[in-house]
Amino acid sequence: MMLIRGMTLLAFASRVAGFAPRAGARLGRAPLRMISVGDSVPMDGEFMTLGSGGPGPLKYDEVFKGKKVVVVGVPGALTPTCSEKHVPGFLSKQDEFKAKGVDSIAVLSVNDPFVMGVWKEKLGAGDDVAMLADGGAQFVSAADIGFDTGGFGGTRCTRMSMLVNDGKVEQVFMEEGGGYTESGEGSNADHMLAQL
């Protein structure tokens, strides 16, 4: 966890930017009721993705129906921990996930498709990695996997990894808000692989 003057980056940015979280906001914390093993993911709605023809919708059921998908949820595209540790761990182990029956890896963030497209290029992710833009946090809210950063960035996806098989959650590993556990139990790629 990055600390500045003894505070988390979010707390420091809050103080510098001068915003206060909304009353009742669970700043930097996972939601009270999160999606769990055995739950169904939302299937009625659309992500946005950036393809060669520009941005376009991708229905939730196109991502999950009849497929085994590892979803890597992150608080923000292009952020240091997400770009340097969390997502690269999954990208470097794509072949290992495929060997264990995973059809695809999907990276989920509350960002727009253009940001997700730029991030995909910077990560060097191939076409078989879906970069799911949830700009209005509809999926994140419906699945109860968001947390509120107030004026810093609104609702964000809790850092997590989740194995979804034909729309049903088989594994889910949530971090505390935007925190990251690099080894051992947590949302990292090695921990997910060990569960398959």
UniProtKB/TrEMBL annotation:
User: Does the record's keyword annotation contain Signal?
Assistant: yes
Query: Where are the catalytic residues?
Result: C82 (cysteine sulfenic acid (-soh) intermediate)
UniProt superkingdom: Eukaryota
Show the GO cellular component annotation of the record.
cytoplasm
Sample GO molecular function, one term: thioredoxin peroxidase activity
Checking Pfam families in the record gives: Redoxin
- What UniProt keywords apply to this chain's record, in alphabetical order? Antioxidant, Oxidoreductase, Peroxidase, Signal
Report whether Transcription shows up as a keyword of the record.
Answer: no
From which residue to which does the signal peptide run? Answer: 1-18
PROSITE patterns from the entry? Answer: THIOREDOXIN_2 (PS51352)
Q: Which InterPro entries match?
A: PRX5-like, Redoxin, Thioredoxin-like_sf, Thioredoxin_domain
Q: Which GO terms describe its biological process?
A: cell redox homeostasis; cellular response to oxidative stress; hydrogen peroxide catabolic process
> What region holds the Thioredoxin domain?
35-196
- Name the family the entry cites: Belongs to the peroxiredoxin family. Prx5 subfamily.
User: What protein am I looking at?
Assistant: Thioredoxin domain-containing protein
Q: What is the lineage of its organism?
A: Eukaryota, Sar, Stramenopiles, Ochrophyta, Pinguiophyceae
